[in-house]
Hints:
This protein is of the alpha+beta class.
Amino acid sequence: MNVSYAWLRAFVPFDQTPAQLRDLITAHVATVDELVPLRQDLAAIVVARVVEEAPHPDSDHLHVTRVDDGSGVLLDVVCGAANVTAGKLYPFARTGTVIPTGLKLEKRKIRGAVSDGMLCSARELKLGDDHDGIMELDLDVPPGTPLLQALPLGDTQLVIDVLPNRPDLLSHLGVAREVAAVTARALSLPAVGGAPPVWDAVPRVAREGATGGVATRVQDHALASRYMGLVIRGVTVGPSPDWLVRRLASVGSRSINNVVDASNYILH
């Protein structure tokens, strides 16, 4: 069972470090086989502010910028993103950094202008599929702040060996109950935002057949004595919010869309 340290803390406000929590769970609940720090490929990425921006003199789509990366020296950076704007914050990879895609950055000239580092898109950081522009950061942090500190991206995965007699540990809520007990902290369910669902009259069908355009049949009553189904309409399929994408990534699951991701989220 892959368990997210940050996800557990949404249920229980414990103070233990990932290593300390591993030892507690192993001693009192189940063996933690592995402790995996997540997104260490972003450790060298910092938050930077674009101080100046101007069109590249020899290009119709490139921009020449001056970037404050917190080092005390403004860096010249060539950027091809249309959304680069002076005064805004973006993820920045300094020269020499190996970004998550495997590319190692070098200081070089682009159309005659020196480029010392790179302003990054979400795709280049493997934080999403958006490659239309660089990733704008709506944050109140100084330039030079590590991205893993500025955004809730840094996490640790605990790989727990769940035995057959402990199916209650096959969810974060189940593990959180045990963590609450061993840390003497209260267990609380995170608040669910948004408007409460409004249910019209729900038809109940106590027989096999079709309801709402969906057919359900039990083919072997010895194996499945009962099957329940619910038809939900008016759902718009689209990308999941960032928090859900990060939650799934923390347990090794890839985001597909909001409907599939909601199902996978509930399973964890």
